[in-house]
Design brief:
The chain is mostly beta strands. It contains no helices and 20 strands. Strand 19 and strand 20 form a beta hairpin. The chain is elongated.
Amino acid sequence: MAAHFYDNQGNLLAVDPIWQATDYNEPTTPQNQSGSAGHAAATQMRVGLTTVLDEGWLAFDTIKLTSLSALITARPSQYHKLTAQVNGRLNSANNGRLFIQYSNGTIVNVWQNDGIFNGNQNVNGSFTTPTGVSSFQVGTEVVLDKGYLTFTDVKLTAYSDAIPVTAGDDYHLESQINGSVQAGLGQGGEIKARYYNAAGQDIGADTLWQNPVNFNGVALVDQTFNANTAAATMRLALQVNLDVGYLVFSNFALEHNVTDTSIIQRRTYSLAGQAIAVKVSGDPAAALLLEAARLTEVSSLAAYLPT
């Protein structure tokens, strides 16, 4: 059994053995075998099965192909969304899935076919990272002898904690982004401020950063924005398209330009459960935000998902 890797034009780049028989007396009862393979430049792959017929026989069954992203830093109790486009055909239930694998070995399915699947489907799932795990991976899996699946446009979004806002006030965000995404404007990653009303309903968003075309290197975010006039809270949403590369978001600083100085109030803003800023209004010594703190690696999303 071997993995055959190809580029976008279908040119063969490499053949990587996954498993091969090493004994002339292989048992005739079913045996579980596994192996791994990878190629940094490939965009397509095929699994090849070879048997030398004049040396005996082999039957391959339940050929399960699993792809895993790079390790992604886990923040305790951080909310994420995972979306994807699934295309293909499966002859029976539970033979394809999109899942999260935590560093402690726990696997949580975001999507799994619950019957015969034929066509395409938009997957829109969510998960919250548990305590006690340091990282997670996004994975896809398909049983190849039951059909085929392709997972495309796989987007992971990490959300900050809810940040209290003053509707209509100005806010300022600074951040650093490192990475490489081979995609059009905004198709590889972005930062948004998502707004919620007092009932917790999503009422819209402002885009604070989008990847330039074929971004590669470092970007500095320095963006002032006006909070939605009906907003009670906001969350920073950090998104990366795992199909096209990786992004690491770090060094966040959030500031609030306070306009109401009649009452002294203090509010702590947090991201992934960590304090990032303190809002002070009504303090005659400071009409603007005080104590805006920087965080290193507030939410790292360094990941690449083979398809």
